[in-house]
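Before relying on records like the one below, remember that each one covers exactly one chain. Contacts with other chains, cofactors or solvent are not represented anywhere in the record.
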Amino acid sequence: MRQAAAKTKVIAVQELMTRDVKTCRPDDMLDVPARIMWDHDCGCIPVVDEDERVVGMITDRDICMATYTKGMALGALRVSNAMSSAVHACRPEDTVAVAERIMREHQVRRLPVVASDGPLVGILSINDLAREAVREHVPATREVSPEGITETLAAVCEPRVVRGPTAAA
């Protein structure tokens, strides 16, 4: 008698996402997201408008590079001057496989999770996926596998085209 193949457990993004997401506004000065990142041990936060819709993302690296390249202090630059306005997001009901595909395609470590009507409801990070891969105990039924996480991390870490001037050879 043939055994039926084990069925993969499909996991929705909402099962893994962080719900208590700290945010900032485009008009905030850069010291605001820097303080949030320090206080909450995170390296990236969504930038939202007055309706809690994601309009950008800002990382600790964005903050550092903006202050360095402009030669200005955190309190002298707005979030809008440093944030990335290219936002790649997923929905709470999307599967983890969909979220991983988006992360790979756009080389992002974190995805804002937005409701169908637009507002931010959470954030999913590569760290959330890695922790889930360790938690799942039946390899044949894993949707989040160590191999999949490795592939996603490798794609996210692939070098991008260098922006701006390069060092002289």
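The chain has one domain: 13-157.
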